[in-house]
Amino acid sequence: MHRNLATVGYRVIGRSFRQTIENPPFLWHLNCTRRNGFALFRALSMAAPIYKSRRLPDPDDPLSLMKEDGVAVCSHMWIENFREPEKTVTNLGTYLRKFELWVLAYQKVYADETGSYLPRNSIQRSALEDLLALRNAVLDDRFKWGARLNFHIKSPRDKTDYEALSKRKIKAILTTTQPTPFQDRIVQEVLFMILEPIYEARFSQKSYAFRPGRTPHTVLRVIRRTFAGYLWYLKGDLSTILDAMKVGMIVNALMRDVRDKKVIDLIRSALVTPVIVTQVEEKKKKTKRKYQKKRVLAEDEPKPDPYWLDTFFGFAPEEAEKVPSWGHCGILSPLLANICLDELDHWMEGKIKEFYRPSKSDVIWNTPEGEAEQGNTSWPEFVPTSGPDKTRKIDYIRYGGHILIGVRGPRADAAILRKQLIEFCDQKYQLKLDNESLPIEHITKGIMFLDHVLCRRVVYPTLRYTASGGKIISEKGVGTLLSVTASLKQCIKQFRKLNFLKGDRDPDPQPCFRMFHATQAHTNAQMNKLLSTMVEWFRYADNRKKVVNFCSYIIRGSLAKLYAAKYKLRSRAKVYKISDRTLSRPLKEKKGLSPEYQNMLRMGLVESIEGLRYTRMSLVPETDYTPFPNNWRPDHEKALLEFLSLDDPKTLEDQQSCIKEQGLISPQDYISMLVWNYKRNAIVADQISSIESDDDNADAENQGTLLKSSNENSDRKSEEEEEKEEGVTVAHM
């Protein structure tokens, strides 16, 4: 029996434990099986930990793949692309394989899905394994956009067991409109993190929509800074390009700078894969409104947008209202739209150079390069009046699918440019434009852009400057400024769309019934947030005080009508009488601030009611006229360019040569001089110490010779005294 057990043990161990069998302890235990079969089990139990300790690390372990920080990888990509912006990118597979980018994308999508940030060390191992499976599926061309039932990774909020669903539910999932799958959003985020730094280094400085660090406020400041002095304006709407575009045109635009097959195929499949959309049937009018129970949000469910933010989104201007959404590209769609329209931006930059014809008799823009500051550098928005022969110049700006072109010169130049622009859009984008879609308007009529009206204002300032000899001269000048004012007509239109008022000439506020069940404190707080956002939106408008005061009047009247209906006060006058002009007093008490309410407020049993802001025009802040710098760039691009300039060895050489020319000492020379002085002082100190040691040795030798001589003298004296004593003794004898 023991022999049979031993032979079975040999077969069980097999080839996998061959290396561990050769170990002496294991052989000793195995030889014992001839005497005792239970020794085999000891040997097996001993072999397992030995084998485990020598096992190699798993290359597919997600924890072992996270070697770097995802933000550091993204920063490296931005630096490399801004260092060589003209270089064609051929191999993006190395970044697509980096698991750190996938983890960072998972964190972003998780935050959008649940409304809370998930730290990297808090991600569960099962989620990391699913994320690794998704990455491998993308690399192996097994990933499919728009999956409905088979997912590599599921949303943390999705608790559905798809294997246990009935046929009816599966059919409903496959045939109705569903939200974008969680795994699709992760892949979109990874592709966005890879492609954005590549194209941000190549994009024109004339485009401002869907780009980091560039906002509508930036566009308004650029227009005020650089469009002063233009008489004719071309305003075009190319937003039909954002609705749909041929897949071949998008892929060709991508392949101008990116030649990676895997990334191109991923985006092509996202554009080609059909999106299942069901038509929503018109709801029948309900005869009787049923009671609706309030829905309680789950713990991991994000809260919906507050009322004030949802209302402010209704004020979005026409140019910023449309966001492209192509196929399954998701957040990649705005980036792809900018990639396609970037060729138009560069074409217009060439036209700006072509149409520039300087005139020496003009006060501004009279240099051949056209890069000199216009007029007074301390007041660049002011354009002084010049003679009949003016410099011909054009400028261009694009926000999304809307373009604005300013022309300084005759109307014929604007007509020629419009004709060339129509031909370019027809050839490049197959977009049929006509003269009506690209009207030529004079500045005196007012140009509407981003809900702000651009118009010319003639001013007569007193210009002071220092002449030769230090004499200050004051002269009366004549010139124009570009006035940027918020459109009250557009503001009324937006309020009417949100059901805040009715009427055009004499707008009448309407009650805001969406806040009917909210408390007075909560309603006032929501409206104050809306007003604060409106104040910030009209920050650069010349009529900021007027338009914000009008918005405050509409909102205050709407709330007064709401409170009159809620507390049965019949009119706004009674509401203002009880609750004050700012609606800060409680309306539940007939007398306003009653002593009972004051006592409850001190004890913290009721909410303090915040009054409405900006009820008077004097409370509205002034317009921001901060000078806008020429050749402006966002802060992140400034930091990148400064880092690259400091990292360039040529910059260090230029600094050293400049310092030498001025006869100054560079920091490196100063440090080397300090080191040389330190070494010299050390050598001098060594020499002094050696001299002192030599002197000490000489003094010691001298002292030794003196001691020897004194000893010899004392010996001689003692001998003479002994001889004298002997002579005295002999004489007595």
Radius of gyration based on Cα positions: 42 Å
* N- to C-terminal distance: 128 Å
Q: Report the total helices.
A: 27
Number of distinct beta strands: 12
**What fraction of the residues are assigned to beta strands by DSSP?**
5-15%
The largest sheet is: 4 strands, antiparallel
Q: Which residues sit in consecutive blocks of at least 5 with pLDDT less than 50? A: 1-56, 724-733
Mean pLDDT reading = 80
Which term fits the overall shape? globular
Quaternary state reads single chain
What proportion of the residues is helical, as a percent range? 40-55%
- Global structural class: alpha+beta
Q: Strands of the biggest beta sheet: in what spatial order?
A: 3-4-1-5
What does this 3D model show about the protein?
With 733 residues, the protein is an alpha+beta fold. Among the domains are: 58-202, no CATH class; 206-255 and 304-370 and 380-453, no CATH class; 495-619, no CATH class; 637-674, no CATH class. Helix content is 50%, strand content 8%. The longest helix has 66 residues, at 667-732. The radius of gyration is 42 Å and the shape is globular. It starts with a helix and ends with a helix.
